[in-house]
Amino acid sequence: MPKRSIDSDIHNRGKYQKLSPHAKLLWYYAITSCHGNAAGLYHITLRTIAQELSGDGVVISKEEIPELFEELKALDIVYYDDAEVLWVKNFLRHQTSSPKFLAGVAKALDGIARSHQELVEEYLDYNNGIEIPFEMPPNTEDTGQDKEKEKAIPGEQLASLKGEFPDIDITEELKRFTLYWQESNKELKRPKSAFRNWLLNARKFKQEGKSAKATGRFPTHYTRPEDI
Length: 228
Fold this sequence. Notes:
Layout: H1 14-17, H2 21-32, E1 41-43, H3 46-53, H4 65-74, E2 78-80, E3 85-88, H5 99-113, H6 117-126, H7 145-150, H8 155-164, H9 170-184, H10 191-215
Antiparallel strand pairs: 1-3, 2-3
Helix pairs in contact: 2-4, 9-10
């Protein structure tokens, strides 16, 4: 994980001073999160953000995060969409411009561009003047690659999983699962096993979340399931 810089004068910035305490915390988190990358443009779920911001008597719920993002988006500080892709707008301008770091930026953009090409184009326009060694990959919308990935789990297997996990929103989890593998650049050898493992973790987190509401203590970590 590359080192990241942050403006030490941030507390004197007008935009920062306008934010609520939790929105300030979210901004810091977006910049320094271990899930981030050299580009400051990465995929992260609301549930992960909520669990990692909560602790020591402070509870920030998953439902509260979108409102905090609206505070940041109103000041054009961050971008966050329904596909759970986060972009810290001014991130790159405060980082080193060394060839090694910029190569890391290019690598991060390559993973995102495969599913968010327009967003990466906007990112490059926003950071115009910074020499990022990156070329936009060919548009794969008409190649059927994305459709093939979506077909990796046949309908009858999905029906079986819905019966096994009636307490989980299979459709929503499948969207997240598909997006995760599209951006990971890893080979998915056994999709049903990988997706079932994903659902087991989703159920575990859901149960821990219910327990957390009763005790006021949230789980300290959440591990994404890998292909098994």
